[in-house]
Amino acid sequence: MAARPLFRALIMGPPGSGKGTISERIVKTFGLKHLASGELLRTNIRQETEVGLLAKSFIDEGNLVPDDVITRLILHELKNIDQYNWLLDGFPRTGPQAEELHKVYQLDTVMKLNVPFDTIKERLTSRWIHPGSGRVYNTIFNPPKVAGIDDLTGEHLIQREDDKPETVISRLQAYEDLTQPVLEYYRKQGILLVFSGTETNKIWPHVHNFLNKKLPVLC
Ligand code: AMP
Prior knowledge:
By secondary structure, this protein is an alpha/beta fold. The protein is 47% helix and 14% strand.
């Protein structure tokens, strides 16, 4: 019997879309190797590799790492897991990255998580901090007894710059604008699948059913 062809997948979704949780479940259930560009960059930064040092200056400024740098890094890593099914995450993020990847690997499927803007905003802006102690609250999972007030000291809570609604909205908008050409690229190839919903636990069964038709389940 001929060997099953290798499965090449990409997962896309903005911060707060539940992409991390869904990716973890895919990896655990179907045994795909997971390659996340952000994690790979952070590992390189920690290890102070040449790419890491270069990437750090861009990331610290809130910019994307240049296409050629990230593409080289990812293609190098993919070579190491060539013989496995894999799930890419965070790459490609731009049109040129998608085109470069396509020259070497053709994806079987691109799964886009489509979670309403307001739901993501609520998730990402739910973190509040007591600046004096660093105590962290979450207005959805772990709210303070009185909104905006620290339980122990009665002092006011603050939001980190990153967690403020204005910042979150502009980050989400930037993600959508940037990734639009990537989605279009894969839509034209007929391999884009959009999974919509407001709860990760409700989106997951659809992702599971879809992958189940293509891959054997491990557990
Ligand atoms: P992430 O954990 O996916 O949010 O990535 C963290 C940071 O790494 C991003 O804000 C970018 O600066 C950089 N990065 C990750 N993936 C890419 C990519 N495909 N292209 C360019 N920069 C990236």
